[in-house]
Structures are given as C-alpha cells and as structure tokens.
Amino acid sequence: MTLTEKLIDKEKQVSAHNYSPLPVVMSRANGVWMYDVEGKKYLDMLSAYSAVSHGHCHPRMVKVLHEQSQKLCLSSRAFYTEVLGPFLEKLCSVSKMDQALPMNSGAEAVETAIKGARRWGYQIKRIPENLAEIIVCERNFHGRTSGIISFSSEPSYKKGFGPFMPGFKTIPYSDAKALKEAITPNTCAFLVEPVQGEGGLYVPSLGWLKEVEKICRENRVLLIVDEIQSGLGRTGKWFASNYEDIQPDGMTIGKALGGGVFPISALVGKKELMDVFTPGSHGSTWGGNALAAAVGLEALTILEEEHLIERSAKLGIHLLNRLKGLKSPLIKEVRGIGLWAGVEIDPQKARARTICEMLVKRGVLSKETHETVIRFAPPLVIEQSEIEWGIEQLVWVLENYKPENS
C-alpha cells in the first residue's frame, strides 16, 4: 500500500463521510502550485472555492499571521483591540458600506444577514411579528446550516434534515418579473448571489441586478447580496455587484477575506440595517478576533497593492475565451466571469467527476458541481502561461475520455 493509499484509508476511517474528495493527498503548496505526499506537482484551478485567491502561503499573509499570533490572537469581543477597527474600516471602504459585523464562516455571515433582515423587518418596516419573509432564488447556495438549507432548492442538501425553517419564498434566478410578483407587505429582504457559483456558474442577464435594486427600493425591501465566492476580485471587480453599479443594503463577504490562511467572514451593511444589532442580540466567540482582523486587513491591502483584481479581469477574459474556443462534443456550454468559469459537460456523453479525476492525473486540480459542471477558479496570482498549461491538460483529457460503460 502506498503512502497516499494509507493516508486516504486512515482519513476514511476517522472522518465523517460528508465529502467525496479526489484521490490525492496534499502535503504543501505555494502560489498556484500544490504538492502531494509523493512529491507530485499540481496546478490549483479551484483555490479552495475562491478562499485562496491570493495564492497558497502568500508571504505577506504568512508574515502577518505569524507576527500577530505572537502578540494577541483571541480576547473575545468582551474587549476592544487595536486591529479590529482598522480592518473593519478598510472593509467598509472597499464595500461602500457603513458598518460591519465580523464572523468566521460564510454560512455564519449569511445567518447574520437573515437575522438582521428579519429584525429590520419588524423594527423598521413594522411587519407583524413572526411573519417576515425573505425571497431567494432557485439554484441558490448560501451555506450548509439548518437555517440556510431550509431555502435551498437542491434536494440532496435537505434530505433527512427537516423540519425546515419557514419564512422564505423561492423564485427563478435572473427573473425581475418573478421578484416583483413575489413581494408582499411582509417581505423584508431579497437575498441573492450576483453570480451563482455552486449552482453551476450562472451569470445573470445584463441589467437584471439594476432592475432588482429598483424593485427593492420601490417596495421597501432590503437587497442583500451574497459575495462570499464572487467578491474580492474573483469576477474582475471588487464585487460582482459592481458590474451594475448597484448599492445593496447588505453584503456577505468571506472566503478570500482570510487570504487563504484563516477563516474570516462578515456582514457589511448600511447603518439602518446594522443598527438593529444591539448588545446580546448576536455574537461569536471567535468573530472579529485580533488574529483574523490583522489577516483580513492584509488580505484587502494585498488585493489593492498587487493589483490582483485587475489581473483577474484581464486573465479572466483569456481563460474564458480559451475555454469557449474548445471544440469537444463533451462540452455543452461554458459560462463564467473574471477568473471563474464553469464548463458544463453533456451528461449523456461524460461524467464531470471522471473528467476531474483524469485532470488530477494530468496535474490539474478542479472539482465538479451538480455532477455536470467543472469549475475553474485559479488563484488570482496565476500567470497566463500557467493557464495555458492547464488548458492543454484539459484538451488532452477531453480528447482521451472514454465512456465508462464502453
């Protein structure tokens, strides 16, 4: 038994099987490259679902993590710290928001947004108690908590986890008319991803978000955008919602906020929304800890100073053009924006999972979603030549794929 096989077997024995990892065991990483325990090198085209947008072990991120860890890591929010204020000030500045509520995971940020939207509905909009509704979209993915999966449209996320939280309405994505018709006097918010990542890399029609903003304003409904995957340069802008120059009432941010070295998330929002939170109404032992604040501030600073957002816009055009130019009967459609692309595979001709496994053997890391879409989201520090190499491996896989029942 090889070292890889031994480690996989050990993990399978002691880990809950809530993931189905690709059969490779990672040992170290740097920039856009990862290395397994056998020493083989891989091009990371997944970035831990956009959490490693800065590249693996970015030297500035590691330096700040190390330096802050020797000073103060955690004191809880029972005290002020010298680093949280500057971090949240920077976060509010880039998001054009008034205040921030720091948490740890993306799902926590979304749960915070749900609580804030409901309380705003009762205290500010004067919706009768316990009747507030939040509108969401089909194919949404906002996290895995019991509250969030209550409004998922994916059966596999919900099976065996009921009963579910009420108070949500689901409409088709990129459909302004459906939103308008779904709103009632009890609607407090519309929660939406500007680009649906986990759902299969769906980019809405041009002008839809602007129309959504208008509808929400006319009906006194909060517009809350989930930028956890799409934010912080992934799409070639600070946030995907910037493409339509909209100003939401609230925004959830996470993943790349931790610079690939620490879990950090936040709900940022306008004062009217954020003012509903009062002492004791919400919190987290680790949320806003000093280590996270130092890391988050450096992550935002690096995005600016190293022009990673501009790189994403430029290299994203190249990536999408190359993928859309591929001539393979296995490809049904290519979708994406910035350094974020989804290659939809025709399920009648191939399995996306098998293609991902073949890519691993060629030294490229990616992952399927919904069994039919292969996602490509490399670190924003990737070079064009590295993208080209990755595309070459994909071409080889597509040309050499053999149906499993043949």
From TrEMBL:
Give the E.C. number(s): 2.6.1.13
Entry GO MF terms: identical protein binding; ornithine aminotransferase activity; pyridoxal phosphate binding
Enzyme class per UniProt: transferase
PANTHER family (alphabetical)? AMINOTRANSFERASE CLASS III, ORNITHINE AMINOTRANSFERASE, MITOCHONDRIAL
Q: Which Pfam families match?
A: Aminotran_3 (PF00202)
What is this protein called in UniProt? ornithine aminotransferase
Q: Into which family does the record put it?
A: Belongs to the class-III pyridoxal-phosphate-dependent aminotransferase family.
Please, one GO biological process term? L-proline biosynthetic process
Query: SUPFAM superfamilies under this entry?
Result: PLP-dependent transferases
* Source species, domain of life: Bacteria
InterPro entries, sorted: Aminotrans_3, Aminotrans_3_PPA_site, Class-III_PLP-dep_AT, Orn_aminotrans, PyrdxlP-dep_Trfase, PyrdxlP-dep_Trfase_major, PyrdxlP-dep_Trfase_small
Cofactor(s) required for function per UniProt: pyridoxal 5'-phosphate
Keyword annotations: Aminotransferase, Pyridoxal phosphate, Transferase
| Coiled-coil boundaries | none
Q: Which CDD domains match?
A: OAT_like (cd00610)
- Which pathway? Amino-acid biosynthesis; L-proline biosynthesis; L-glutamate 5-semialdehyde from L-ornithine: step 1/1
